[in-house]
Amino acid sequence: MRAFIRNYCGDMPSRTNTAPAPASAKTSAAVAATADAALILTFAAIGRDAHQRGDVIAGVLLTAWPFLAGAAIAWLVLRLWRAPLSVWPAGVAVWIGTVALGMLLRALTGQTVVLPFVIVALLSLGIFLVGYRLILAGIHRLAGRRRRR
User: Domain residues of the chain, as ranges?
Assistant: First the structure.
């Protein structure tokens, strides 16, 4: 577990740390971006399955693309690769960017945007995109305490 944290998470900066990202930043960014995309695809797949819509792969991609684009825009505009696994600002920014821009893109392309779906997307993607970062932050904190002993 310590090796995973050291190799893939690097030093997770605090809210006040504005220093440049550690050498493992590229790896951390790749892990976080891949996890974000996988979780957004999971969200889309769960939604498609819950509503029993056919054409599984194309359907999941059709549902997911606005959210994937929203996440990518948030990553680029806010330069989230600097501290990609931090809860704040990266986790919250990618979550809100994914939902807000994803819903905007859905509306612009004629896909359904209704309040219940917005609420479900906010809750689900919040749990997914912020949740794994919270878990990693907790593991990182525990590992730090054990090293100090």
Answer: 2-7+23-148
